[in-house]
Amino acid sequence: MLRVWFYLWALPATLLGMLVVLVARGSGGMLQRVDGVLEVAGGWPAIVLRRGFPFSGSVAAITLGHVVVGASLTDLTTTRAHERAHVRQFERWGALLLVMYPLAGLLAWLRGGHPYRDNVFECEARAAEIAAGLDSGQPGSV
Fold first, then answer.
1. Is residue 111 part of a domain?
2. Is 61 a domain residue?
3. Pick from 63, 48, 80: which is nearest to 18 by CA?
4. DSSP characters for 2-21?
5. How far apart are CA 11 and CA 71, in angstroms?
6. Which of 31, 34, 109, 121 has its CA 20 to 30 A from that of 67?
7. Does the residue 140 lie in any domain?
8. DSSP of the chain, one letter per residue?
9. 96-140: per-residue pLDDT in tens?
């Protein structure tokens, strides 16, 4: 029953992720389900991930609720521990994470840090990745 609650709590972000899945599939992306998380790789979203975002630059993958969008299947595999940490963050914070993540980046920047590398949510995801022994050295995700 608790598992159902986690899915429902993260559902608004997951629905946003599903829109990205539709775009990815419609533009040639591949879809798979791993451990209760929908993963999609390739297509138009992969181009966006590779071009990057203002504060992070190019990223291998991005998490939206229970959806992980990766630039490639290899990227999904190498960032899985990192991305699952973000899935757990969505399970904990729900759609609030969509606001809290950029605010945490702003707070890191205001403290003199980097808005991506020093974002508390990214630090937690990197720690999970290192704990799993899978530090890819690649930028992770949102």
1. yes
2. yes
3. 63
4. HHHHHHHHTHHHHHHHHHHH
5. 23
6. 109
7. no
8. -HHHHHHHHTHHHHHHHHHHHHHHHHTT-EEEEETTEEEEESHHHHHHHHH-BTTTBS-SEEEETTEEEESSHHHHHHTHHHHHHHHHHHHHHGGGHHHHHHHHHHHHHHTTS-TTTT-HHHHHHHHHHHHTT----S----
9. 999 999 999 999 999 999 999 999 999 999 999 999 885 555 555
Which residues are CB-contacts of 10 (< 8 A; sequence separation ≥ 6)? 65, 66, 87, 90, 91, 94, 95
| 139 is a domain residue | no
Q: How many CA atoms lie within 13 A of 105 on its CB side?
A: 15
Domain span at residue 77? 2-131
Q: Are 94 and 7 in contact (CB under 8 A)?
A: no
Its pTM stands at 0.90
Number of structural domains, the chain?
Answer: 1
